[in-house]
Amino acid sequence: MNVPEKLADKLAARLPILGDRVDRSPVVAVVRLHGVITPTPQPLGRGAINLNAIEPALAKAFAHDRLQAVALAINSPGGSPTQSALVGERIRELAAKKKVPVLAFCEDVAASGGYWLACAADEIYAHRTSMVGSIGVITAGFGLTGLLERFGVERRVYTAGEHKHRLDPFSPVKDEDIAWLKGLQGELHTEFTDWVKQRRGDKLADNPELFTGEVWTGAKALELGLVDGLGSLREVVAKKFPGAEIAVAEARKPLLARLGIAGGSSVFGGAGEKVLAAIEAVEQRATWSRFGL
Protein backbone atom coordinates (compact mmCIF):
# COMPACT_ATOMS: atom_id res chain seq x y z
CA MET A 1 0.00 0.00 0.00
CA ASN A 2 1.47 3.36 -0.98
CA VAL A 3 1.41 6.57 1.13
CA PRO A 4 -1.65 8.16 -0.58
CA GLU A 5 -3.68 4.99 0.00
CA LYS A 6 -2.76 4.92 3.70
CA LEU A 7 -3.75 8.58 4.06
CA ALA A 8 -7.07 7.92 2.32
CA ASP A 9 -7.81 5.00 4.66
CA LYS A 10 -7.12 7.15 7.73
CA LEU A 11 -9.41 9.91 6.50
CA ALA A 12 -12.17 7.42 5.66
CA ALA A 13 -11.94 5.89 9.14
CA ARG A 14 -12.63 9.28 10.69
CA LEU A 15 -15.72 9.98 8.61
CA PRO A 16 -19.16 9.10 10.12
CA ILE A 17 -21.04 6.20 8.57
CA LEU A 18 -23.67 7.40 6.12
CA GLY A 19 -26.98 8.00 7.89
CA ASP A 20 -25.43 8.31 11.36
CA ARG A 21 -25.43 11.53 13.41
CA VAL A 22 -22.22 12.60 15.09
CA ASP A 23 -24.05 13.93 18.15
CA ARG A 24 -27.36 12.42 19.24
CA SER A 25 -27.42 13.96 22.71
CA PRO A 26 -30.84 15.26 23.78
CA VAL A 27 -31.21 19.02 24.10
CA VAL A 28 -32.67 21.19 26.86
CA ALA A 29 -33.19 24.63 25.34
CA VAL A 30 -32.91 27.65 27.65
CA VAL A 31 -34.79 30.92 27.12
CA ARG A 32 -33.72 33.87 29.26
CA LEU A 33 -36.59 36.07 30.45
CA HIS A 34 -34.69 38.90 32.10
CA GLY A 35 -35.97 42.42 32.72
CA VAL A 36 -39.11 44.44 33.26
CA ILE A 37 -42.16 43.24 31.32
CA THR A 38 -43.20 46.13 29.09
CA PRO A 39 -44.51 46.70 25.56
CA THR A 40 -42.22 49.73 25.28
CA PRO A 41 -39.00 49.09 23.32
CA GLN A 42 -35.95 49.75 25.49
CA PRO A 43 -32.67 51.36 24.40
CA LEU A 44 -30.75 48.68 22.46
CA GLY A 45 -33.52 46.21 23.31
CA ARG A 46 -32.05 45.52 26.75
CA GLY A 47 -33.86 44.84 29.97
CA ALA A 48 -37.34 44.38 28.53
CA ILE A 49 -39.65 41.39 28.11
CA ASN A 50 -42.55 41.39 25.67
CA LEU A 51 -43.97 38.98 23.11
CA ASN A 52 -42.43 40.78 20.14
CA ALA A 53 -38.96 40.72 21.70
CA ILE A 54 -39.06 37.16 23.02
CA GLU A 55 -40.87 35.39 20.16
CA PRO A 56 -37.70 34.66 18.10
CA ALA A 57 -35.99 33.07 21.11
CA LEU A 58 -39.07 30.96 21.91
CA ALA A 59 -39.35 29.80 18.31
CA LYS A 60 -35.67 28.87 18.26
CA ALA A 61 -35.89 27.03 21.59
CA PHE A 62 -38.84 24.86 20.59
CA ALA A 63 -37.39 24.13 17.12
CA HIS A 64 -34.55 21.79 18.22
CA ASP A 65 -34.94 18.36 16.58
CA ARG A 66 -33.51 16.62 19.68
CA LEU A 67 -35.53 18.71 22.12
CA GLN A 68 -36.23 17.04 25.45
CA ALA A 69 -37.40 20.07 27.46
CA VAL A 70 -37.42 23.88 27.50
CA ALA A 71 -36.13 25.81 30.52
CA LEU A 72 -37.12 29.39 31.32
CA ALA A 73 -34.45 31.35 33.22
CA ILE A 74 -36.53 34.09 34.84
CA ASN A 75 -35.27 37.26 36.48
CA SER A 76 -38.09 39.80 36.42
CA PRO A 77 -39.87 42.07 38.93
CA GLY A 78 -42.96 42.16 36.73
CA GLY A 79 -44.64 44.79 34.61
CA SER A 80 -47.39 44.71 32.01
CA PRO A 81 -50.19 42.19 32.76
CA THR A 82 -51.06 41.92 29.08
CA GLN A 83 -47.51 41.15 27.94
CA SER A 84 -47.15 38.67 30.82
CA ALA A 85 -50.28 36.88 29.62
CA LEU A 86 -49.28 36.96 25.95
CA VAL A 87 -45.83 35.48 26.61
CA GLY A 88 -47.26 32.88 29.00
CA GLU A 89 -49.92 31.79 26.52
CA ARG A 90 -47.38 31.57 23.71
CA ILE A 91 -45.16 29.31 25.82
CA ARG A 92 -48.09 26.98 26.53
CA GLU A 93 -49.06 26.95 22.84
CA LEU A 94 -45.56 25.91 21.75
CA ALA A 95 -45.23 23.35 24.55
CA ALA A 96 -48.49 21.68 23.52
CA LYS A 97 -47.48 21.68 19.86
CA LYS A 98 -44.03 20.15 20.52
CA LYS A 99 -45.24 17.94 23.40
CA VAL A 100 -42.27 18.76 25.63
CA PRO A 101 -42.16 19.77 29.32
CA VAL A 102 -41.32 23.33 30.32
CA LEU A 103 -39.37 24.11 33.49
CA ALA A 104 -39.05 27.58 35.03
CA PHE A 105 -36.09 28.68 37.15
CA CYS A 106 -36.51 31.75 39.36
CA GLU A 107 -33.23 33.61 39.76
CA ASP A 108 -32.98 36.82 41.84
CA VAL A 109 -36.66 37.61 41.48
CA ALA A 110 -39.74 36.13 39.80
CA ALA A 111 -42.40 38.44 41.18
CA SER A 112 -45.70 39.80 39.92
CA GLY A 113 -45.56 39.41 36.12
CA GLY A 114 -42.31 37.50 36.57
CA TYR A 115 -44.20 34.85 38.53
CA TRP A 116 -46.98 34.95 35.91
CA LEU A 117 -44.33 33.87 33.39
CA ALA A 118 -43.06 31.14 35.74
CA CYS A 119 -46.56 29.67 35.91
CA ALA A 120 -46.41 28.99 32.18
CA ALA A 121 -44.03 26.13 33.08
CA ASP A 122 -45.02 22.62 34.14
CA GLU A 123 -42.54 22.78 37.03
CA ILE A 124 -41.07 25.77 38.86
CA TYR A 125 -37.74 25.85 40.69
CA ALA A 126 -36.08 28.60 42.71
CA HIS A 127 -32.96 29.27 44.72
CA ARG A 128 -33.49 29.40 48.48
CA THR A 129 -32.79 33.15 48.37
CA SER A 130 -34.93 33.98 45.30
CA MET A 131 -37.79 36.45 45.71
CA VAL A 132 -40.99 34.78 44.52
CA GLY A 133 -44.67 35.70 44.40
CA SER A 134 -46.13 39.21 44.61
CA ILE A 135 -49.41 38.01 43.11
CA GLY A 136 -51.11 41.37 42.89
CA VAL A 137 -51.51 44.47 40.73
CA ILE A 138 -49.81 47.82 41.18
CA THR A 139 -50.08 51.14 39.36
CA ALA A 140 -47.47 53.83 39.93
CA GLY A 141 -46.89 57.28 38.53
CA PHE A 142 -46.01 60.85 39.41
CA GLY A 143 -48.13 63.73 40.65
CA LEU A 144 -46.85 66.85 38.91
CA THR A 145 -49.60 69.27 39.89
CA GLY A 146 -48.24 72.83 39.92
CA LEU A 147 -44.95 71.96 38.24
CA LEU A 148 -45.77 73.64 34.93
CA GLU A 149 -47.14 76.76 36.61
CA ARG A 150 -43.90 77.11 38.53
CA PHE A 151 -42.05 77.53 35.24
CA GLY A 152 -44.71 79.65 33.62
CA VAL A 153 -45.94 76.92 31.29
CA GLU A 154 -49.63 76.65 30.45
CA ARG A 155 -50.93 73.17 29.66
CA ARG A 156 -53.88 72.86 27.29
CA VAL A 157 -55.89 69.63 27.00
CA TYR A 158 -58.93 69.19 24.78
CA THR A 159 -61.06 66.05 24.87
CA ALA A 160 -64.20 64.52 23.41
CA GLY A 161 -65.55 62.15 26.05
CA GLU A 162 -65.87 62.96 29.73
CA HIS A 163 -63.40 60.32 30.90
CA LYS A 164 -60.55 60.88 28.42
CA HIS A 165 -58.61 62.99 30.93
CA ARG A 166 -58.45 60.50 33.79
CA LEU A 167 -55.40 60.34 36.04
CA ASP A 168 -53.56 63.14 34.26
CA PRO A 169 -50.33 63.63 36.28
CA PHE A 170 -50.52 67.41 35.84
CA SER A 171 -54.07 67.68 37.27
CA PRO A 172 -55.38 67.21 40.83
CA VAL A 173 -56.39 63.61 41.53
CA LYS A 174 -60.13 62.84 41.64
CA ASP A 175 -61.85 60.29 43.88
CA GLU A 176 -63.90 58.95 40.99
CA ASP A 177 -60.73 58.32 38.98
CA ILE A 178 -59.18 56.37 41.87
CA ALA A 179 -62.35 54.30 42.21
CA TRP A 180 -62.24 53.51 38.49
CA LEU A 181 -58.57 52.50 38.71
CA LYS A 182 -59.16 50.22 41.68
CA GLY A 183 -61.99 48.51 39.83
CA LEU A 184 -59.68 47.89 36.87
CA GLN A 185 -56.97 46.58 39.17
CA GLY A 186 -59.48 44.22 40.76
CA GLU A 187 -60.32 42.70 37.38
CA LEU A 188 -56.64 42.20 36.53
CA HIS A 189 -55.97 40.70 39.97
CA THR A 190 -58.72 38.16 39.35
CA GLU A 191 -57.16 37.24 35.99
CA PHE A 192 -53.79 36.79 37.70
CA THR A 193 -55.08 34.64 40.56
CA ASP A 194 -57.15 32.50 38.17
CA TRP A 195 -54.04 31.85 36.06
CA VAL A 196 -51.99 30.83 39.10
CA LYS A 197 -54.76 28.51 40.36
CA GLN A 198 -55.17 27.00 36.90
CA ARG A 199 -51.46 26.30 36.50
CA ARG A 200 -50.59 25.31 40.09
CA GLY A 201 -53.82 23.54 41.07
CA ASP A 202 -53.76 21.60 44.33
CA LYS A 203 -50.03 22.25 44.74
CA LEU A 204 -50.94 25.57 46.36
CA ALA A 205 -51.11 25.71 50.13
CA ASP A 206 -54.34 26.82 51.80
CA ASN A 207 -52.97 30.20 52.89
CA PRO A 208 -54.97 33.47 52.80
CA GLU A 209 -51.77 35.45 52.15
CA LEU A 210 -51.07 33.83 48.78
CA PHE A 211 -52.88 36.43 46.67
CA THR A 212 -52.24 39.56 48.74
CA GLY A 213 -49.22 40.69 46.74
CA GLU A 214 -46.80 39.39 49.38
CA VAL A 215 -43.39 38.15 48.24
CA TRP A 216 -41.42 35.26 49.76
CA THR A 217 -38.01 33.65 49.57
CA GLY A 218 -37.65 30.55 47.44
CA ALA A 219 -37.53 28.37 50.55
CA LYS A 220 -40.86 29.77 51.81
CA ALA A 221 -42.36 29.66 48.32
CA LEU A 222 -41.71 25.90 48.31
CA GLU A 223 -43.70 25.52 51.54
CA LEU A 224 -46.56 27.50 50.00
CA GLY A 225 -46.61 25.46 46.80
CA LEU A 226 -45.59 28.37 44.59
CA VAL A 227 -42.55 26.37 43.41
CA ASP A 228 -41.88 22.65 43.06
CA GLY A 229 -38.30 22.52 44.27
CA LEU A 230 -35.06 24.31 45.07
CA GLY A 231 -32.03 24.27 42.83
CA SER A 232 -30.21 25.95 39.95
CA LEU A 233 -30.95 25.37 36.28
CA ARG A 234 -27.85 23.27 35.56
CA GLU A 235 -28.26 21.27 38.77
CA VAL A 236 -31.88 20.33 38.10
CA VAL A 237 -31.39 19.69 34.38
CA ALA A 238 -28.43 17.38 35.11
CA LYS A 239 -30.60 15.31 37.48
CA LYS A 240 -33.79 15.21 35.38
CA PHE A 241 -32.18 14.88 31.93
CA PRO A 242 -28.83 13.07 32.31
CA GLY A 243 -26.52 13.62 29.36
CA ALA A 244 -28.62 16.41 27.89
CA GLU A 245 -26.94 19.30 26.14
CA ILE A 246 -27.95 22.78 27.36
CA ALA A 247 -28.53 25.15 24.44
CA VAL A 248 -29.33 28.81 25.10
CA ALA A 249 -31.77 30.27 22.58
CA GLU A 250 -31.42 34.04 22.34
CA ALA A 251 -33.18 36.50 20.09
CA ARG A 252 -31.07 38.42 17.60
CA LYS A 253 -29.94 41.73 19.12
CA PRO A 254 -30.92 45.04 17.51
CA LEU A 255 -28.36 46.58 15.14
CA LEU A 256 -27.20 49.23 17.64
CA ALA A 257 -26.54 46.57 20.27
CA ARG A 258 -24.54 44.46 17.82
CA LEU A 259 -22.45 47.52 16.96
CA GLY A 260 -21.89 48.25 20.65
CA ILE A 261 -23.49 51.69 20.51
CA ALA A 262 -25.02 52.71 23.86
CA GLY A 263 -27.83 55.13 24.61
CA GLY A 264 -29.58 55.03 21.26
CA SER A 265 -32.40 57.38 22.34
CA SER A 266 -30.02 59.95 23.86
CA VAL A 267 -27.91 60.01 20.67
CA PHE A 268 -30.67 60.35 18.12
CA GLY A 269 -33.62 61.63 20.13
CA GLY A 270 -34.67 65.16 21.01
CA ALA A 271 -34.89 66.77 24.43
CA GLY A 272 -38.44 65.48 24.99
CA GLU A 273 -37.40 61.93 24.26
CA LYS A 274 -34.48 62.26 26.67
CA VAL A 275 -36.81 63.39 29.46
CA LEU A 276 -39.25 60.54 28.80
CA ALA A 277 -36.39 58.05 28.69
CA ALA A 278 -35.07 59.36 32.00
CA ILE A 279 -38.49 59.07 33.66
CA GLU A 280 -38.93 55.55 32.31
CA ALA A 281 -35.49 54.59 33.61
CA VAL A 282 -36.45 55.88 37.07
CA GLU A 283 -39.70 53.89 36.99
CA GLN A 284 -37.88 50.71 36.00
CA ARG A 285 -35.27 51.27 38.69
CA ALA A 286 -38.09 51.67 41.22
CA THR A 287 -39.67 48.41 40.02
CA TRP A 288 -36.47 46.49 40.77
CA SER A 289 -35.78 48.34 44.03
CA ARG A 290 -39.06 47.09 45.56
CA PHE A 291 -37.26 43.76 45.91
CA GLY A 292 -33.97 45.18 47.14
CA LEU A 293 -32.29 44.82 43.72
Task: Describe what you observe in this structure.
Strand 5, helix 4 (113-118) and strand 6 (123-126) form a beta-alpha-beta unit. The chain is of the alpha/beta class and 293 residues long. Helix 2 (51-61) packs parallel to helix 3. It has 11 helices and 10 strands.
Task: For this entry, give a set of tags.
293 residues, alpha/beta, two-stranded parallel sheet, 11 helices
Oligomer: single chain
N-to-C CA distance: 70 Å
Secondary structure category:
alpha/beta
- Number of helical regions: 11
Unreliable stretches:
17-21, 260-269, 271-276
- Report strand %: 15-25%
Topology:
Blueprint: H1 3-14, E1 27-34, E2 36-37, E3 48-49, H2 51-61, E4 67-76, H3 81-98, E5 102-111, H4 113-118, E6 123-126, E7 131-133, H5 147-150, H6 175-200, E8 215-217, H7 218-224, E9 229-230, H8 233-240, E10 245-249, H9 255-259, H10 264-268, H11 271-289
Parallel strand pairs: 1-4, 1-10, 2-3, 4-5, 5-6, 5-7, 6-9
Antiparallel strand pairs: 7-8
Describe, in short, the structure shown:
With 293 residues, the chain is of the alpha/beta class.
